[in-house]
Amino acid sequence: MAVSLQLRASFESSSLYLKADGQRVLADDSSDWSRCVWDLIQRGSATISLRTSDGRYIGNEDDSVRLVGDVNDASLIDVLTLPDGSWRFRLSSGEALSVNAQDGSLSWTNVGDPRPSSWTVHLACIPTVNVRNASTKRYLCLDGSELKFNKDIAWGAEAVVTLEEVNGQYAIRSCSHEYLDQSGKLVEEPSESTWYGLVVKGGRVAFQAVDGTFLSAGGPSSSLASRRERLSRDEMFILEPSRPQVCLTSYCNDLKVAFHETRGDIVADGDKTDDAVYFQLESGDSDNIWYIRTHQDKLWQVVGGGAVRAETDDECEAAQFQLEYVDDKVVIRSVKSGKFVVVKQNGHLQASADEPTEESQFVLELVNRPAIVLQGPRGFVCQRDDSAALSCNNLTAEVFRVESRRGRYSLSTDDEKYWSLSDDGDHVQADSAVPVAFSLQFRSETQFMIQTTESTFLCHSHNTDLVVAAKEAESSAARWEYAGKCIPLLGRVTPSPSPAPPPRNETDGHASQQQSPVASSTGPQKPKGEQKSTGRCTIL
Length: 540
Hints:
By secondary structure, this protein is mainly beta. It has no helices and 51 strands. The chain is globular, with a radius of gyration of 25 Å.
């Protein structure tokens, strides 16, 4: 199995990303995000292959850096880890991958040639996850002012964390938009003690603080804090993709739909917020086919007479539903019967209507995305450095805050600038002091569309801007990834608690004595707080 990543070579005046270009491989500062993503496949303890999305591999062909179709000795690459955590790549025959900083050309150089390039590695994935303790199997949740492993299921916003990455290091951000300090406290501003390296082994991860200690679940409350330098099962965690969880409110009686565990009934009678009124949306085999799961791991099903109940976890046709959108509301149709789900006078749900009515309309609210990262085919959505405009071709993710109110959503930056439409209504920018409402239309458990009040959609454009397009343009250009598999399967990201010692001579299997071109000050910078350590990736 593979993990997707990006590789960056940094120099005094530029940062160049490893990129596929036809049959060639080069390094440039291009905004073509899709060609800068590589699948890393482990072939041995420190041997890998780097694969493109169309199944080709970086290799040596006629002494040139080329993309080849098969895995062979010429495409097996040894990883050499430098003291600062960056990587060097070389073939089994000894030639190392080098980049020309002037034109981005790549070559295989011998050990005696000028020092080969080093690469900063970071994951290319949606970083909104659930974290499970490998030892207790319980999930990490916000509990008061701490993060604790105290839930058997990952349910609600409290169970979601966002991993913010800068220069190969990661900060753990809770649903309250606070950062986990290594002391276990949640703080508003990131600092040196809120950045961690990732140590990944066998699909599990550990978070290593700048002083070399690891985050661990300890004490009677299983709170998360940095405790010891040795790595054991108590310090190992499993990252799981966070699927969308929603709350449904009946439009006709203004009560929340709730799961009644004792009887298995689905009833619109909830007047308080707890796990019973949250449901998880899970994609079926085709577009807009959904399974709806309760917090007790039961699926909605249409049973005799059209009643909607949740008694089993059988993913059969009776458990499949479709979502159809009416303005900022949604109607739910049974795939098996073709009937729309309505709320009866006693509050029970029943799939019995041939046409959507007021009784079949629900307000659907996404509840487990207090913060969100959006990704399109060209990269992540971010605010431009020199303006309030939003672009969608970035190699690094930006986290936006989400506020929801009865099925409509406002997105903002950390400095509370809300997304809004430009004066001409064609572009999106983050410059409003007041919330601007958008609607979401879910297409799968990883993708949705963002709709304006004028029934147009936010799309990515060829010039990389986030733009507004007419409904007729509804296509892949209007779909945004907001969730995904974020499970690194190998590799290690570790911080440098102190300045790196002089590298050793490369001829003995270690780094050369020349200074690395990768500086901790290069690459994307978090606008608030400093990041002094320079964590990168190594293969365990």
